[in-house]
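Internal ticket #5521
Category: modeling
Description: The requester needs a full-assembly model to guide mutagenesis choices. All entity lines are attached below as received. Residue total reported by intake: 605.
Assigned to: D.W.
Attached entities:
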Amino acid sequence: MAGPAWLADSFAALMLLTALYCAGRLAAARARHRPNEQDVDLVHVLMGVAMAGMLAPHALVLLPGVAQPGGTLWDGTWGLVFGAATVWFTARVARSYRATGRLRPAGSHHLPHLIMSMTMVYMLATVPRPAQPGGPAMDGSAGPAVHFPVLALILAQFMVAYVMWTADRLPALAPVRAWRPAPAAVPALALASPAAASPARASPAAASPATGSHGGASPAGSGASPARPQPASRPPLSLRLASCCNIVMGLVMAYMLIVSL
Amino acid sequence: MSEVAVARRHETWPGDPDGGAAGAWQAPDARRLLQLALGALWLLDAALQAQAFMFTRAFSRMLATSAPGNPALLAHPISWSAGLIAQHGMASNALFAAVQLLLGLGIAGRRTVRVALGASIAWALAVWWLGEGLGGVLTPAASPVTGAPGAVILYALLAVLLWPRDRPGAPAPFVAARAVGAPVARALWLLLWASLAYFAVQPAGRAPQALPSMISAMATGEPAWLTAVGHHAAALLAGHGLPASVALAAALAVAAAGVYLPPQAARATLVLAVVLAAAIWLVGEALGGILTGASTDPNTGPLLMLLAVAYWPAGATPDRATQPAEEGRRGWPDRPGSRTASPR
């Protein structure tokens, strides 16, 4: 990244904090059986670490050259990781499309994660970094331009639009403190027909048709041990903080794309 | 576990201590979407302001170039502020980027949108003067092709037109009229586009080689394909500066008068306005110079297009362009019957 070192370092620290928080969400979801979206949190952990390395490569000088940001091993490994994430989210979007027959960017909330994963692959593949010959220094000088700069501009515009969209919807997300366990009968209804369960009363986890095994959110009646606390009876991890992670990720990614122009 | 599944509208959560605000949340209507687009442009500006170039003395030198040609009363503060920024380049630029970031995020928040829009007007006016030299409108070199009357004044204009307030009375015929009323909104549009037409035929712009020279100059330093676009356009217009300027002014004048026409004709002129803005942005402004790494904003093109959308006449039936959205109408495709909102 070309830009002031202190700014890049600050963003790198922010990314590490975000990754740490998302790792905490994963741990809390497993330990306390709290519903969350594990694939998204996992990708946020990985993105946070990778973006921190790309923003502050000098922090990794002790690594061998190929393992530093811009090195073959670094770029190859992370490229594979985010390539896999891209495939995963593509499958999620395709599944949503098959189920509904519609592809709505605003409604299909996996689409932004798909684009973010693709953006990571793009940045790893095209943005020059110090470990590469001719890469920019972190002294405030502009480095060599990124390949396909218009794509970087479009992606940056997408990121800021996504940030605005997400921030606008924050008040629509219920705070965790407002959560209440569902009435006993509702989860079974929800399992049979999500639409049949009143959204005003069903517990969030129980009302999900996409619950599956994510977050260990197997609904009541699915054969799990009755002694074990069911996620449906637990409040989900904070949705607002999850959205804040999206906002931070989107902002920093937009910054990285713009300074690479 | 899908977050779609766990998301809930405020009012659907019993015991919500913020229940008072719960019922107020609405799916974004057309004006809110335009506000979000304006906020996204502020965020983009913040990212552009954080580029390496802006932290160097070259940025203050760039600001200082807007002083020459302006009256001394206006030019002196521009030179003074440019000198101040040169002395404190790092801190001042970080402050500028932070302000623009806060403006964008403020517009994103529904509780803060008024404050943010108000602050954006004040900020835009200050930058229009001290950073852009009033967009060069008082200099003989002003041209819509190169960004007159200045991008940042359009941010202020949009903030006024998208102010979250509705005038009492009949539904507004277009979004931009909701806050200030149709007569004022139309007058503002006419003033803006008529001034663009006026600038297009200024002496500095209508000389035989003026327009091609402007276009060539703006294309310098851009990626090869964009430079080629600029150079081809300049070659096409070489020696035809006067007829090209007159034709451009005529088209801008038609766009200016369009909002006073019946809806069908108004839509046609608004499409013309969008096409003109897109052409100016691509050919004249070279995408605002964003791809050079030394631009603080995308210039006037996207803002003019956003303005045109704000003036798009509403249909015969009340729709989301002029009426607040019906709360809770939105459902989610992967949850039949759901009334929930997704954070992602």
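Resolution: model delivered.
Comment from assignee: Chain B touches chain A through 66 residues (CB under 8 Å).
Ticket closed.
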